Amino acid sequence: MPDKPKLAFYWCASCGGCEESVVDLAEDILFVVDNVDIIFWPVAMDFKKSDVEKYADGEIVASLINGAIRTSEQQEMVQLLRRKSKVVIAHGACAQYGGIPGLANEFQKEEILKWVYEESPSIINEEKVRPQLKYKVNGSEVFLPELWNVVRPLDKVIDVDYYIPGCPPSPKLLKEAVLVLLSGNLPPKGTVLAPDIALCDECPRKDTKPTDLAFTEFLRPNLHIIDPEKCILSQGFVCMGPATRSGCGALCVNGNMPCTGCYGPTSRVKDQGAKILSSIASNVSAKTEKEIDAVLNGIPDPVGTFYRYSLAGSILRKKVNI
Amino acid sequence: MLKIEIEEAASKQWQPKIVAFFCNWCTYTAADLAGVSRIKHAPNIRVIRVMCSGRVDPQFILDSFAKGADGVLIGGCHPGDCHYQEGNYKFLRRFQMLRRVVDSLGIEKDRLRLEWISASEGDKVRIVVNDMVAKIKALGPLGLPVKYKEWANEMNVLESEIAGKEEVYA
After folding, report:
1. Record: contact A275-B66, CB cut-off 8 A
2. Quick one: pLDDT at residue B156?
3. Could you report the per-residue pLDDT of A83-119, keeping only the tens digit for each?
4. What's the confidence (pLDDT) of residue A2?
5. Sequence spans of domains, chain B
6. Interface contact A271-B162, CB threshold 8 A
């Protein structure tokens, strides 16, 4: 079947959830494999890097790459896939904005390694052994990829054509993306393949959102019960809905949890964290610095809350003094 | 801009660059008054007139830092005096939250400043600007455009290393 378009999947710094979104296509995956040849998919199929190298440049119709980029190996692989592919799609929040791994940009590499290999309570490593980048064994040298100081979204490393948002993307979006690719009728480069309107628009609780929010305190979902009917934001929980792209069908809200912002901002917004921070803080009802601060203390980790998925792709990118 | 910055650093004549968002009704008018009154203050501010401090989006501030500002100053009407009634309160709340974020991301508190300056307080413009320039001079350059370039270097270094390895295996 040499005529079918070739499709590659690859994962970088990710949890595997985006791979799961492919599997979640359920029966639709049959449609996908009927119409394309999956020529590379490390999580599910036994193809090697050398198999990808054999293709001519641009021979792969599309590569869907998930995960943030934070090692030399990931850089090497995505650069290879970029060369071999006509279209590269950043698949999921990590590839698009750095995602949860991007929060590592709040720390130094050494802090992270020290925690992981020495200080974490579940670690027993009395000799403080760390993985070495090079190691000689039986007369030959083996290598490990280098961990970078900065976690990057995919488009800071290679040219990216399209984005499928989400942590993970909904199977519906993924299917639509594949259909768009197969149709040959490609949208303008840089398009995010999801609706370009805030989540509130498709939220089932939209009608209960008051015009004036006037926060007097912020609550945390692990400490308070959320009313399953009312707008979550109006109850004092931080819901990222107003600054987040729709397309998921308000999954978290339907599960009675606030939106955490995984679909990223709409096209008019450059920095999702700054935008939701602005919206939420402006609606605090207090008027003096002291009273405002008391209310804001209800959000103990503003970076982790507002930039949960988007720190690496935000304007500042990373803690700037480390 | 980057080239200028490097040159400035090389000649040790670095001068802080401060982006100042002044509201049309109070602080911008005060800066105007300072001008017509021939009040002298440090020349390091680049004033951007906005209709209200409430118009200042935190993205403007972060973008200023990212594009090379060493400090950002926001000037608005005194509480209770906002031409649009609530704009300065809205900005105050935003500012209180933003400074927490900016602080966690490693930008010193003195680089971001909010001042209420009414239309008649031309001299306050001088005091605030001079004070801010002195504090930022003490801190030194923030230099984010240079930092972004330096951060990107790790990718280039590794690229040449990878090329070297491939030769070994070939």
Report:
1. no
2. 84
3. 999 999 999 999 999 999 999 999 999 999 999 999 9
4. 58
5. 15-141
6. no
Mutate to test the interface with B, among A72, A111, A213, A238 (most CBs of B within 10 A): A72
Q: Rounded mean pLDDT of A184-211?
A: 94
In B, minimum Cα distance to A284 occurs at B93
Q: Do B96 and A306 touch (CB under 8 A)?
A: no
Verify whether the Cβ–Cβ distance A150 to B151 is below 8 Å. yes
A212, pLDDT greater than 90 = no
Q: Is A28 helix (H, G, I), strand (E, B) or coil?
A: helix
- Give the CA radius of gyration of chain B: 20
Distances (CA, A) of A318 to A12, A114, A225, A303, B133: 19, 19, 34, 11, 25
Tens of pLDDT along chain B (170 residues) come to 566 666 666 556 899 999 999 999 999 999 999 999 999 999 999 999 999 999 999 999 999 999 999 999 999 999 999 999 999 999 999 999 999 999 999 999 999 999 999 999 999 999 999 999 999 999 999 999 999 999 999 888 766 666 666 665 55
Sequence length of chain B is: 170
* Structural domains for chain A: 6-100+149-183 (3.40.50.700), 107-148 (no CATH), 199-306 (no CATH)
- Is the complex ipTM higher than 0.90? yes
Predicted confidence (pLDDT) at residue A264 exceeds the cutoff of 60: yes
Q: Which residues pair with A159 in a beta bridge?
A: none
Q: Indicate the residue of A146, A270, A320 with minimum beta-carbon distance to B144.
A: A320
Q: Which residue in the set B89, B106, B161 is minimally distant from A321, CB to CB?
A: B106
What's the distance, CA A90 to chain centroid?
Answer: 9
Nearest to residue A78, comparing CAs of A147, A145, A9?
A9
At A171, phi and psi to the nearest 5?
-55, -30
The whole-angstrom separation of Cα A264 and Cα A310 is 7
Q: Where are the beta strands (DSSP E) in A250-321?
A: none
Tokens describing residue A232: 């979550």
CATH code for the domain defined by B15-141:
3.40.50.960
Whole-angstrom distance, CA of residue A274 vs CA of residue A306: 7
- Mark yes or no for CB contact B59/A275 under 8 Å: yes
Q: Could you tell me which residues of chain B have a Cβ less than 8 Å from any Cβ in chain A?
A: 54, 57-59, 61-63, 65-66, 79, 89-94, 96-98, 100-101, 104-107, 142, 144, 147-148, 151, 154-155, 158-159, 161-162, 165
pTM for the full predicted model: 0.92
Distance from CA of B35 to the nearest CA of A (A): 31
Q: Spell out which residues of chain A touch residue B77, defining contact as CB-CB under 8 Å.
A: none
Q: How far is A246 from chain B (nearest CA, A)?
A: 21
> In this complex, do B92 and A273 lie within 8 Å of one another by their Cβ atoms?
no
Whether residues B105 and A277 touch (CB distance < 8 A) is answered with no
Q: Directed axis angle between helix B58-66 and helix A272-282, to 10°?
A: 140
